[in-house]
Structure formats: structure tokens, C-alpha cells
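This is your field. Have a critical look at both lines of this record:
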Amino acid sequence: MVGGSVMTQPEGLVLDRPTKSDAAPDTVAAPQGTVGEKSPAIFAIPAASLALAACGGGGTDDNSIASIFTPNVSIAKPATDGEAARFILKASLAATEPEIADIRSVGYVAWLDKQMDIPISQTGVDWLSSRGYDQVTVDEFYFRDTLADNMVWNQLITSPDPVRKRLAYALSQFFVVSTNGIEIQWQSNAVAAYWDVLNRNALGNFRQLLEDVTLNPAMGVYLSTLDNRKEDTRTGRVPDENYAREVMQLFTIGLNELNNDGTKKIGTTGQPIETYTNSDVSNLARVFTGYSYDYANLVRTPSVRFPSQSVAPVESVIRPMTSDTTRWSRPQTTSEHSMLEKTFLGTTIPANTDAPTSMKLALDALFNHPNVGPFFSKQMIQRLVTSNPSAGYVDRVAKIFNNNGSGVRGDLRAVFKAILLDDEATNATGLTSPTFGKVREPVLRFTQWARNFGATSRTGNWTIANLSNPGTSLGQSPLRAPSVFNFYRPGYVPANTAIATNALVAPEFQIVNEVSVAGYINFMVSAIGSTNGVNNDVKATYTSELAIVTDSSALLNRLSLLIAGNQLTDTTKATIKAALDATTVTNTSSLADKERRVYLATLLVFASPDYLVQK
């Protein structure tokens, strides 16, 4: 349940029971593998097993950690394994038995601090380099955008710092750059450098993150600041306004003035107050002129296949953009930065102010705008915890953004801790609240599957590629948003639902429809039970599950805890258990029979509405 007294799913998402007119067949055949694979499907899905209960769970929790930032507070710890797993699944990418034991031992704060302290082991740029994907060879890696997909999947599935990666992924949906819109040489390397910006700054300061995002070449290409030139009165040319508009609308202050709790301020006309005008956009656009690739001490390399053509140096898409024209690929002595006065949002940058100073003053002004705290905080709460946070929850987090307790504004580590440790996020009453929770997005489901079941890459290349197709894949792929507005809008309301009736939102439902639901199930059937692995490369092992496969209750209990944080209702578990017990599996059963039971149990948990809605 989420977003209303009773959650009304879009047609085709969940059926409580088949009707006469839409009854399902006895089995749904598994597809013939994922893209690039032709191995036969090795198990079928009992259709009745997919008709699972949509809501359930309950309990109370006196173990509040609302006062976690006050001195001398007693150490708050999860009271049950389920509570521990649910917290981990909000903060991280998968729950494991050792982590559950650890958090129950040391408590929420100590566990989270320990996870946040784990250093970055390998950057996305370095991973591409380790595979030789930054070399000019006959393979022409500089034209391959799918290498960015393999890079980010590798980062999400294998990195030893899953909390940081979870936060970086949330940031990638706020500061959006999509591989789809980066049509340059070394596209994948540019996207990897952008991912590294988010990853590096995920626990740093918002102001530094904003600057690094602004100067990143991938963002420069995506939102047109790269080679954005000053005005020319002779030709009528004016600076491109794309980034100026989006940095305000999407990355900092939003469209309307906000109270600190995220609610809109209302003007004298009874309408919300707009944050900026067209004049603000055109003036701010002057700030983002005069930047290009940094080519200092770099040279182009002849193509191996076509020696008469040259390839840009890969470092140029990794380094921050520069306004120093002597460092450009075609050096010049005159600046392309607008020297006009720049007045926006009540700030005036005097005429003849150079590019670096103009950018510093502009980003400072945006960073210090009172909207940033609530605007950013609410969306991060939506990405990590719940689609409909209370105004009080937003206010508490925004206050930490405004001041971490030591006079520092924009401390992201403090902000994310405030989000995850808030009583509204951890209190078990959320399990039964019809307005609490969020749909688990497909990228996180697939990542969780891969991490929980020991997925490895046969080739080391993590050839998962782009999974955006809703009919044949997940319907979502990291760093592949269809536009700068992300995969879904934070205020999306599915029409004709109880969510709409109750004036609530459900962002992730924007990518849920009849096609995507069927596509997700079919893709997971193939991924879970594939003989050769996803794209003949990435395959899970299920070692722990096969060890207890003869005990269907033990197997189901393990999956319920680790995958769903014990959110599966008794009704759901009984339905899945009946499907598992339809075929007897003993110690003498064949490995194929044992695997089929594990695959079926895994699929049915991942298809269950109890799992699909994170509480």
C-alpha cells in the first residue's frame, strides 16, 4: 500500500484474482533469454503465483531515533532482523546477513557512519581504463555508448561502498545527465567522469557538487554550456539559456518559492510565487559562456581504421571545462565570456567580471537561496524513503541542509544521515501507513538481485548494456533518463487512482504500465534462470539458496528477509510456498530441479507487490 487508503494499481500491474474475461493461462512461458542470448528458458511461472496480495505487514516500534543528533542519546538499534534489513535497503543497494547482524550490534548511526567512511575503491573512469576502453584501437571504443552502461552496472553491483553508490544514484536523478544525449567521441568516458563527480561528492558539500556538475564536459554537452559563446550584437547571437534555466528549475531552487518544509509560499494574489523570470534566465545565461574542453598538453590521435581522421584525446572529456582560451583545442587570445552586467535573483555581477569570478558569484547566489534546502531535501527523501514525506520530515532535513549543527550549509553527509535516520523513515508504523513508502524502481531491483545472489561477469566486462526498453528489459537503465526531467517527475500523480483521489504523488509510477510490467517480469525470468547469464555474461550463483533448497520455508524466509525486509505478508508467503511445494525437491533431486525451485522462489518474491512497494 502506498499513497492512499487502498492502493489502486494501474491496470495490468497487479491482479488480486483473474476474472473470467482476463484469466491467465496456467503458465507463462519464460522468454528465450536476454538480448544477445539464445539459451532456452529452464522454468515456467505458475500464473496463479503472480496474483499476490498487494498490502500487508504491521507492528509498532518504540525504538525512535528522532533525537539522534542530540548529545548523549542512547544508541538506537533495530529490534528485529526485518527492521535492520528495511533500513539497509533504504540506505544501500542490498541487505546481507552480516550487515544485518552488524547493524543490530552497533546501531543505526554507527553502521551508517562506517558505511559512509568506506573509500571509493575504483572510479568509473579508472574501470574503463582498466578494460582498455580509453585506448585508440581498431575497436573504436570512442564510439561505443554501451560501455557507459557496463561501467555503471559494474559500479552498482560490485563496489564495496554500496551506501555511497546508492546516494550517487539518487543524485544522478536530480542532476540529470543522460548517456542518450552525449553524442561526442569518448561518450562513455565522459559519462563515467560525470558519474565520478556524483560519486566523489555524494558525501561532500552541495556547493562543490554544483560547481563540479557545472564544469563537467558531459553536462556541458548535455545542457549546452560547452562552447556557449557570448552575445554578438552584429549577428544577433545571444548566449544559450538551456543550462541557466535548468540549473534553477531542476538543480537548485525550483519553479516556486518554498517554505522550509517544502510547501509553496502563496502570494497576495492567492497563487504560488514564481522563483525566477525570463530576465533572470537571460542574465544568468551570460555567466555560463566562454567554456570549452581543456586541451592543455593534449594531442589528437590518428584513427587506426581511418588514419586520415583523428580522434580527440580522452582526457578532454574527463577534465573540467575551462574558460582559459589558451588551453582550448583551438587556442585563441580573446575570451568568449560575456562581459555584460549579469543581474538575476537579486544578485548583480558587475560588467567586465571574468568567467571564473562570474561563475563563483552565480553559484554562490544559487547555493544560498532559501529554496535549495527544502527543494533538494524533499526529492532526496522521495528517492530514498517515501514518495509523500510529511512537511515536518522535509523541514527537519532542510534545517540540516541549512546548518549541519556546526554552521556548515550543504553538508550532504549530514543531509543524507538526517533523511535516513529520521523517525518517519525508521518507525515501523510506516509498514501499515497507506501514505508511506515508494515503488522500488527497476534499476534498484535488478541491482539488488545481482548483489544478493553473487552475480559475476564471465568476461569481466559486465556486458549488461542498456536496459531501457520497457517491453524487453527493465524499462529503466542508470544514466539513461529520457530527458533532463529524469525518468519521472517528483510530482507525478497516476490518473484515476486512490493516489490521485487523496492528493498524493507516486513518481515511479510514471514508468509503470501494462508493457513495462510484463517486460520486467519476462526480463527477470530470463536473468534469474538464464543458463548463460544476462547477455551471455552476468550470472548469479545462488550458493546460499541452493544450500537450503529442500526446505521451502527456510528458503522463503531467507528471501523475504534479504529481498523484502520481511515485508511479505503471510498470504503472500503462503501463495509462494504453495507454488514451490508443487514440485518435491529432496537432497537426491537433480541440480536442475533444485535450481528451478530457487529460481521460482526468487522470481515470485521480486514480482510480489509486497516487495515492489518499499515501506
Notes: The chain has 24 helices and ten strands. The first helix runs from residue 81 to 91. The chain has a mean pLDDT of 90. The CA atoms of residues 400 and 415 lie 6 Å apart.
